[in-house]
């Protein structure tokens, strides 16, 4: 099946079960508590809360929902590129009951679709059920357990192996800190070589053993004071990872080939066209390497592949968000977008791009997804233009910033070496020597060679990039702190985040003071007795940077 067929067969299945097929809502959420739409249920919150009447008869709906999970409660940004199944932007397929059916239908239909229609081998499927600890808002979900047990037993499988308890973190779903929520039951698929025998999801974390579908039984509202109130009615809210399901069906060629299976969302027809375009533009090839465990010791192909994955993920996030009217900017969700874009541009350097390239990928995305999401077509020129401008602005400072970082990194590493036997001048001289000679190495290598070169020297603490330098990279070169941390992590270097935050606070305070002064200057027009203090040079600089969009 192609991904388009998989998406359609999900919608067809629930249409047959009398669900109204609804369009995806915008990535710009209605709720002030969310940065982006992060789940299929977001658009239905007023119905769950009883604030809006359900417009569907019967009270059932299904759709594919555009989601972004970057920043906020569900933040997957740091995993992107480093695993093969978390994206910042993804489609969540979902079906809902608004006070209509409950656990029995939800679970049986999930089984019917996955096992009956899509032919997932039942012995590779695992279900989790909610098992609370003391003080949790709900009881053990015996009802869900019994329904799953019946299905697994009928398939000749042991429910004790195939049903796994999950705690509040995994099996009590919440959209954010507040809102409709409840216990959930998830489907996982284990395609590891021994995945049909071991049970208990021991292979979780392996890319071949992943969660595909979450069935949430919405019963409560989480209040701002941390308490839970039962809702007027019980609802079903499910979310299935479209790219993940596609990766399993396509990676196993419809479950006919487990031996050569490459289970990765990026090995699907969803991402392949974007990769093809990146290959053409960069002249590099995606090598399908597995995400490495240690970033500071990776091969060139591994680092190329991370860059491919990150860039392909990020172009989707940026394009869909801009098409929905969320622009990169300096605050809140807009700054999250800007951070994501800057990550992509920086990963572009890994592939050898020095001129704007990212905006060009919008074309292939619109070509492949514009049928399902027509807003991409409609906003195509706008998205391209916004990205181009953003990319150009960051490009201007990126290379200098990268050079600066290299200097800061080598100085940070050298600062961790002490010379107890010599005076300060000699110690400083030796540190410069180390920087010159070993400054390009990763932290463990640097330390090893440095201690070897100067017998008698000692290591004092683990090297970290000083907060002041992280701040300089942010303030002058437009490096978001998470980008600095990422680049540092590739060297095995930490970052003094506290030091950075202190400087950020001071800058915010200065900005507040400057604003006050502005108010004074305006009011001074009517009240000449009030003195205008003007801006100090630092504030003027801040403004100029803002104008060219570097920060
Ligand atoms: P995970 O534990 O893998 O992070 P989750 O439990 O946070 O997933 P849910 O909130 O239950 O995810 O969302 C429903 C479904 O959406 C998941 O079962 C998964 O298939 C899919 N999904 C969740 N997060 C992502 C993501 N970042 N990228 C792609 N698919 C995702
Ligand atoms: Mg998650
Ligand atoms: Mg999960
Ligand atoms: Mg889940």
From TrEMBL:
Cofactors: Zn(2+)
GO MF term list: alanine-tRNA ligase activity; aminoacyl-tRNA deacylase activity; ATP binding; tRNA binding; zinc ion binding
Catalytic function, reaction form: tRNA(Ala) + L-alanine + ATP = L-alanyl-tRNA(Ala) + AMP + diphosphate
Domain Alanyl-transfer RNA synthetases family profile: 1-551
Keywords: Aminoacyl-tRNA synthetase, ATP-binding, Coiled coil, Cytoplasm, Ligase, Metal-binding, Nucleotide-binding, Protein biosynthesis, RNA-binding, tRNA-binding, Zinc
Location in or out of the cell: Cytoplasm
Role description: Catalyzes the attachment of alanine to tRNA(Ala) in a two-step reaction: alanine is first activated by ATP to form Ala-AMP and then transferred to the acceptor end of tRNA(Ala). Also edits incorrectly charged Ser-tRNA(Ala) and Gly-tRNA(Ala) via its editing domain.
The protein's name in its UniProt record: Alanine--tRNA ligase
Species the sequence originates in: Terrimicrobium sacchariphilum
Interval of the full protein contained in this chain: 1 to 551 of 942
């Amino acid at each position: 099946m192609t991904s388009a067929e998989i998406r359609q067969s999900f919608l067809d299945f629930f249409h047959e079960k009398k669900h109204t097929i609804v369009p995806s809502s915008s990535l710009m959420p209605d709720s002030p508590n969310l940065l982006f739409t992060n789940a299929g249920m977001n658009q239905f919150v007023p119905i769950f809360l009883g604030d809006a009447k359900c417009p569907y008869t019967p009270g059932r709906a299904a759709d594919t929902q555009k989601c972004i999970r970057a920043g906020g409660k569900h933040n997957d940004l740091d995993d992107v590129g480093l695993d093969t199944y978390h994206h910042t932007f993804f489609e969540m397929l979902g079906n809902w009951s608004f006070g209509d059916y409950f656990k029995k239908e939800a679970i049986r239909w999930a089984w019917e679709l996955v096992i009956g229609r899509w032919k997932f081998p039942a012995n590779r499927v695992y279900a989790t059920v909610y098992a609370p600890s003391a003080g949790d808002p709900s009881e053990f979900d015996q009802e869900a357990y019994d329904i799953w047990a019946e299905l697994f037993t009928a398939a000749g499988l042991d429910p004790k192996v195939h049903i796994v308890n999950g705690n509040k973190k995994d099996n009590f779903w919440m959209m954010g800190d507040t809102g409709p929520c409840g216990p959930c039951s998830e489907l996982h698929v284990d395609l590891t070589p021994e995945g049909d025998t071991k049970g208990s999801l021991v292979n979780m974390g392996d890319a071949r053993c992943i969660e595909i579908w979450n069935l949430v039984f919405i019963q409560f509202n989480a209040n701002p004071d941390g308490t839970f109130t039962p809702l007027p009615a019980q609802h079903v809210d499910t979310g299935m990872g479209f790219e993940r399901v596609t990766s399993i069906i396509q990676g196993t060629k419809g479950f006919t080939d487990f031996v050569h299976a490459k289970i990765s969302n990026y090995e699907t027809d969803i991402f392949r066209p974007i990769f093809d375009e990146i290959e053409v533009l960069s002249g590099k090839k995606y090598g399908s390497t597995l995400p490495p465990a240690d970033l500071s010791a990776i091969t060139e192909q591994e680092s190329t592949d991370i860059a491919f994955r990150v860039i392909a993920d990020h172009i989707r996030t940026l394009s869909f968000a801009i098409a929905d009217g969320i622009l990169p900017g300096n605050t809140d969700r807009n700054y999250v977008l800007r951070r994501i874009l800057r990550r992509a541009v920086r990963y572009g350097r890994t592939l050898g791009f020095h001129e704007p390239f990212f905006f060009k990928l919008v074309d292939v995305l619109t070509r492949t997804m514009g049928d399902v999401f027509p807003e991409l077509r409609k906003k195509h020129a706008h998205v391209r233009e916004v990205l181009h401008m953003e990319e150009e602005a960051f490009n201007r400072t990126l290379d200098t910033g990268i050079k600066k970082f290299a200097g800061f990194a080598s100085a940070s590493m050298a600062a961790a070496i002490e010379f107890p036997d010599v005076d300060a001048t000699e110690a400083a001289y030796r540190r410069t020597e180390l920087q010159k000679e070993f400054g390009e190495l990763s932290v463990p290598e640097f330390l090893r060679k440095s201690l070897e070169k100067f017998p008698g020297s000692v290591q004092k603490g683990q090297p970290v990039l000083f907060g002041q330098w992280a701040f300089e990279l942010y303030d002058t070169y437009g490096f978001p702190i998470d980008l600095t941390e990422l680049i540092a992590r590739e060297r095995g270097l930490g970052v003094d985040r506290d030091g950075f935050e202190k400087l950020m606070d001071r800058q915010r305070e200065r900005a507040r003071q400057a604003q006050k002064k502005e108010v004074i200057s305006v009011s001074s027009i009517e009240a000449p007795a009030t003195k205008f203090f003007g801006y100090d040079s630092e504030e003027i600089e801040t403004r100029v940077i803002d104008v060219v969009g570097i920060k």
